[in-house]
Amino acid sequence: MADDETTETEQTGVPDAAAAQDAAAPTLSAREQRARSEQLARSQRPARTPEQRDAERRELRSKKAVARRRRREQEKVKRAAASKDAPARTGTPPAPPKDASPQVRTGTVVSAKPDKTITVQIDLARRHRRYQKIVRSTTKLHAHDETNDANEGDLVRVSESRPLSRNKRWKLEEVLERAK
Q1: What average pLDDT does the segment 141-170 reach?
Q2: DSSP of the chain, one letter per residue?
């Protein structure tokens, strides 16, 4: 008779639903219980007409607008108090100091074909801020060479200058090393 009394699991291959729930249902935290009860309360809320929902929305928006205005007014007063302590500012940004020296770059001449113009390639290798890997980049710029002194392959120093043509904003300072 023991063979005839097999459980439902053995007959169908499917465990009892109650046994499965007991095994799979972990205890709920207080936060989860609260969330479930709030969700249940929302689902049991009486149905509202679109006009009622719109009125509630407008009321909420007006409350937020009042709070925003109040906060902005407070920030305005705070900025005014801080600006009294700071020196007065004009609408235009301050001019750069007169003693600012022009930028200087060192690079290799890759082309000296145009008259009084050289193309200089500047190689940069710097460490990436986040990944700390060496990142290499190259920049080509056109520089003014009044005496056509530099040739391809030379190591030169160029400095920043006023715009001399559409692309030229640098001038040759000196040839550091001649190409072999």
Answers
A1: 96
A2: -TTT---HHHHHS---HHHHHHHH-PPPPHHHHHHHHHHHHHHTSPP--HHHHHHHHHHHHHHHHHHHHHHHHHHHHHHHHHHHHSPP--SSPPPPPTTPPPPEEEEEEEE--STTEEEEEEEEEEE-TTT--EEEEEEEEEEE-TT----TT-EEEEEE-S--SSSEEEEEEEEEE---
pLDDT at 138 exceeding the cut of 80: yes
pTM of the predicted model, to two decimals? 0.46
Q: How many residues does the chain have?
A: 180
How would you classify the pairing of strands 104-111 and 117-127? antiparallel
